[in-house]
Amino acid sequence: MALRLIPIRRAGNRENLFMGGDRELVMFSGLLAGALVFSAQDMIATVFGIALWFGALFACRLMAKADPKLRRVYLRHRRYKSYYPARSTLFRNNTSSQGKQYK
Q1: CA–CA dist 7, 52 (Å, integer)
Q2: Is 89 a domain residue?
Q3: How confident is the prediction along the chain (103 residues), in pLDDT tens digits per residue?
Q4: Is 20 among the domain residues?
Q5: 61: domain range?
Q6: In a domain, 36, yes or no
Q7: pTM for the full predicted model
Q8: Residue 21 lies in a domain
Q9: Which of 2, 35, 48, 69 has its CB surrounded by the most CB atoms within 10 Å?
């Protein structure tokens, strides 16, 4: 009996991008730029908000081009401990203070 081959289409396995960048980052930067423009109601704030929007969109597109999952990788990286002390072996006898951190 031959194995059945099922093709995996690219459209079903594609990252969730919006305007070429990460969906959440692009929409949040647009929200911030829009809030700046409409809350200040000044020509300088409008120019700065539009420049902020295009700059953030450019940065999000560069990030998505390098790695579409870069935002999630960065957030997971931030959750890791900043320092992992060296342990020589799994069978090392820890002191009482070292043993308490694993319980």
Answers
A1: 42
A2: no
A3: 788 998 888 777 788 899 999 999 999 999 999 999 999 989 999 999 999 999 999 999 999 999 999 999 989 988 887 877 776 666 766 677 766 776 6
A4: yes
A5: 16-79
A6: yes
A7: 0.67
A8: yes
A9: 48
